[in-house]
Structures are given as C-alpha cells and as structure tokens.
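Record filed below.
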Amino acid sequence: MLVDEIAARLISQSVGGAPGSTEAWVVVRGYLPDAPDRVVGVFETGGPMAEGTQALHRPTFQVFLRGQSTGRQAVRTKAEAVRAALDKLGGVTLSGTTYIDCRLTGDPIHIGDDEVGRPEMSLNFEAWRMST
C-alpha cells in the first residue's frame, strides 16, 4: 500500500520514527493525531488511471507536517528532509513495488497554523510505480 511504503521510506531515511518511538518526529499513515505536536503524515490523494497493460501506476500523495508552536523553522527544515528522502526517488523497490520515479509537484506549502498555533506545511508528490 502506497502510504505504508512511503512512511517506511521516511522512517528509514530518519525523517521521523514510527508511532510509539522515542524520535522527536513521528510518521503516521492516513490520519493526523492531536498529539504529539511534531508529526509527519502521509496521505493518498489519487492520481491518473493506470496506463496500458504494464501495471504502471502514477499515484499522487501528500506529506503533511505539523510542528510545535515555537518551531516554525523546524517544520521548514523537516520539509527539506522529506524532499531529500522522496524527490527524484527512482530505481528503488519498497515492499515489492518498484518506484521508477517520484517527484515533488511544487514547492512546499505553508498552510498556516492549526487551532492551537502549531505551524503546518504540506508537500505533494507524484510517484511512478510498478508492482514486481
């Protein structure tokens, strides 16, 4: 599943840890918990239909970041770590799926602050992947 593969990649690249770990940032899949403050969330956002009979899929996904209320620069720094872990990712197999390419589709977006003043950002990606 896409979110599991991307979350595992982020964890393996030390962007954050799994829920329950002692890492400063936690990587979650498909939801955003109220706590902890520092969260990296991975969400599927769709993508175009599969092409041909080769089972080439081009799903899109979003990585959502939320930091501490005093950590605006830390969120920007974490966005750069996400970009480094995922942008132009190619020739990598994650959980039996070959990623031909993965591209950031625009600059990281500062969404604003949540209701308790924690800064939020998002990065949007398109992956080119094929089941092996």
Notes: DSSP finds two helices and eight strands in the chain. The radius of gyration is 15 Å.
